[in-house]
Amino acid sequence: MTTLFDPLPLTRGPALKNRFMLAPLTNMQSHADGTLSDDEFHWLVKRAEGGFGLTMTCAAHVQAMGQGFPGQLGVFDDKHLPGLTRLADALNANGTHSVVQLHHAGMRTPRELIGGEAPLCPSSDSETGARAMSLDEVKQAGDDFIAAAKRCEQAGFHGVELHGAHGYLLCQFISAEINRREDPYGGTYENRTRLLWDIIKGVRAECGRNFSVGVRLSPERFGMDIGEIRRLASELMTSGDIDYLDMSLWDTFKEPEDPSFKGRPLVEWFTGLPRGNCRLGAAGKLTTGESCQRAMETGLDFVAIGRGAILHHDFPEKVKADAAFKPIALPVPEQHLVAEGLGPAFVSYMKSWKGFVTEPASA
User: What's the pTM?
Assistant: First the structure.
């Protein structure tokens, strides 16, 4: 049985020293122009020091127009290179596989972050006020993902992950509900997945042979069809073009929402797929040593840790010392999060998560 502490070789880039990936976590700590802050640097490097085999940034936007949240890390301009280089150097020095997650929020871009302009979407969307992208804008978005990957490679990162989940731009293209285009990027499944494949092929052509590429998908919500996502997952993993697939499941062991896929845990609809030399991991309520090992026993190659990593920078080391490790109980004092390397902006964001941070005593 594969354990959480076996090394994990990838086709490209350095092997992971264990099976723990730091999930890409929104933290709102970068500067308004997307340049790296000391707080974001400290948060990420502390996780690398804490033993994560792969350390990934938050979603980093590849276009100024694609910003998803305040204080988001940027990768759309060479002005971001000094901070990215500093971060890559520090992560790599700690023996972790260093990755930037590449992201465009699409119709989920808040207007106030882009000067009041309408956000971009595959098709117009009345609810968000997003406008449909022109064909040239679609191709430009693809080019900007590729340019961002090259920038990350130049900075010294081992690889990038393409964010195709959670209702952001690449996910919007995949969705038959959201994407109503009548050109080569809409309509059929092949057309709706075309932009993702264009980017993967472009990164492979433009970046070095030892540069890792991962993809994040989510099989439910945001107009996703689990049958289509299983098909896409299988095609991605057997293509030889990506090194790992990161499935964001929200709850790894729950049954799917789709009635036709009931009867077994969501994760098992993906662990049974052919995967060639690609590695498969998942995120979704993997917060204890026991749940992480249970996830591995379903056939995963690695686990992505979010909440557990916020609460404990050294989550992998805690599990290594105690296979039954459970994180500190919620809610936690603000001081605990500060001690775990969260800056003021991140702590403030965590206070918006119901029941996560202890409420101050009333006077």
Answer: 0.97
